[in-house]
Every structure is written in C-alpha cells, then in structure tokens.
Amino acid sequence: MAAAYSAPAALRNRDPILGVLRDVLPPSGLLLEVASGSGEHALHWARHLPGWTIQPSDADPRARASIAAHAAGDDLPNLRPAIALDAAAGDWPVARADAVLCINMIHIAPWSAALGLLAGAARCLEAGAPLLLYGPYRQAGVPTAPGNEAFDADLRRRDPAWGLRDLEAVEAAAIEAGFLPGPTVRNMPANNLTVVFRRG
C-alpha cells in the first residue's frame, strides 16, 4: 500500500473546522469533501461526526492512496473509500450529498476549479443544504494580513492562475450557481475564513 502523507496545516486547523461543522451540520447525513488531500481531515470528521457518512475525494491518485493508507489504521464504518473527483468537471461521481466541504483548494487551483466546485456542489445539494469553504481570502474593506499577501505572491509566482480569491467574487459566482446571497463568514486561526453558503 502507498504511504500515507501528512499535511501540517491539516493538523492545525482540523479542530477549528470541526467546530464549525458541528455548528452548521444537522445530526446526520452524507458529507462530500472535495480535494481531501492527505485524508487526515476526512478521518477526523469520521471519528468525531459519527452520525455522518464521510465521502473523501481528490483528483490526485497520490492523495487517494494516502487517504486509503490513513484509513487502513482505523475501523471507521462511516468513512467511504476516496473517489476520483475533478472539481472543474461538468459531471461528478456523486449525485447527491447533504453537505459539501472544500478546504484550501480554490486559491491553489485555476478559477475554473472554483467555478466547477460551486456548480458541482449546487447539483449535489438540496435547498438549504450547506457548502463550506475554508481558506484565505481577500475581503473588500478589510486589510489583507501580511502573511496572506506573501502567500498570494508565492502562489502567483508558482502559477499565475493561482492566488487568493476575492470573497465578493466567490459570492457572486456562488449566487450565479444557485446559492443564496449573504453567506455566513467565520474568522478562523492563521487569517483564514470558513464561508458557509446555502443552496437556494
């Protein structure tokens, strides 16, 4: 079996994100995590949200192998095997979910991936169901933290299509995809936000 890898940020932010999930989610359902990465988050949700079935996904086969390797050490009946899912694709392998979660993806991907994520989540979710996005954003009228400015510059050096997204642009695209205006925005550690959209 391929080796599991670890993402230090996942260990730092998993409990703050879990707190938001506990506040936002109903007692049970299917949570689709898009761009699950190492799989450490998905295992954490499965352990601490026993009423929820967790469906991890990632476009990268190395990530899916890591998720499988992490899961092999736990007996978690509510954790499904990771599936291949490209957020930008027009057809996802999941037809419905009760919530969709995406952590630290839309700034490390082209804008088309963010648009695909919003469209795909809108297809999966019923009215009122949440889409939760976590990561750093720019906000109109709010100074961007120096660390986030440096991170944005580094991302754009690596790929001009990457970079911190304007929250207002993400909201406008979400509304266009079928989500309600006025998402709930939670301040998180290390100058990140959790943004909760609701399906219209």
TrEMBL record:
SUPFAM superfamilies given in the database record: S-adenosyl-L-methionine-dependent methyltransferases
InterPro entries: DUF938, SAM-dependent_MTases_sf
Keyword line: Methyltransferase, Transferase
GO molecular function: methyltransferase activity
The keyword Nucleotide-binding is annotated on this UniProt entry: no
Keyword Methyltransferase attributed: yes
Highest taxon of the lineage: Bacteria
Gene3D superfamilies in UniProt: Vaccinia Virus protein VP39 (3.40.50.150)
A matching Pfam family: DUF938
GO biological process, one term: methylation
Coiled-coil region list: none
Species: Teichococcus deserti
Descriptive protein name: SAM-dependent methyltransferase
